[in-house]
Design a protein that fits this description.
By secondary structure, this protein is mainly alpha-helical. It has one domain. The protein is built from 8 helices and no strands. The longest helix has 26 residues, at 130-155. It is globular and about 45 Å long. The mean pLDDT is 85.
Length: 163
């Protein structure tokens, strides 16, 4: 355990956590299960459905364009999480690893990643609109706000970068 913590970077740990979240909860199997077995009118059902927001699918009755947009959103959430974890200064400015600033930097990175992933994928829709872009960015930021604490926890104790 000491060796893994010694070499763990905050951006790397946060990105791995984001990848796991997207792979597991964005999978078609989880998405189908949560739709069939939860009530969106309860807090627990709403949150479990929110976990499936950056979904991905390989086989679907949807058009190829919608499949690509859904998959692109899931990919962008992970890639943008890595980017924002490097760009946000919280863990860089922290004097000691494991401080609250690392937690909030990881959380904020996921909020930004969700919002920007949604905003960017809106550009690929057939008839993108400014209102549609605002709505999807809000959905992505909501996802990041309620799920991003997991990324914040994953970044705790990690070094800032690879140096």
């Amino acid at each position: 355990m000491a060796l893994t913590n010694r070499y763990k970077t905050a951006p790397g740990a946060g990105t791995v956590a984001a990848l796991i979240l997207v792979l597991v909860f964005g999978s078609p199997w989880y998405s189908d299960w949560v739709t069939d077995n939860t009530n969106p009118e309860t807090a627990g059902g709403w949150w479990l459905r929110l976990l499936a927001w950056p979904h991905w699918r390989f086989d679907s009755d949807d058009s190829l364009r919608s499949i690509i947009i859904g998959d692109l959103k899931a990919i962008l959430v992970v890639v943008l999480t890595l980017l924002f974890l490097y760009l946000l200064p919280g863990s860089q400015l922290a004097r000691a690893r494991g401080t609250i600033s690392q937690f909030f930097a990881g959380w904020a990175a996921y909020i930004f990643a969700g919002g920007f992933a949604a905003l960017l994928t809106t550009l690929f829709l057939a008839n993108p609109s400014l209102l549609g872009a605002f709505r999807t960015a809000g959905e992505g930021a909501t996802y990041g706000l309620f799920v991003g604490w997991i990324i914040g926890l994953a970044t705790l104790g990690g070094r800032r970068g690879t140096h």
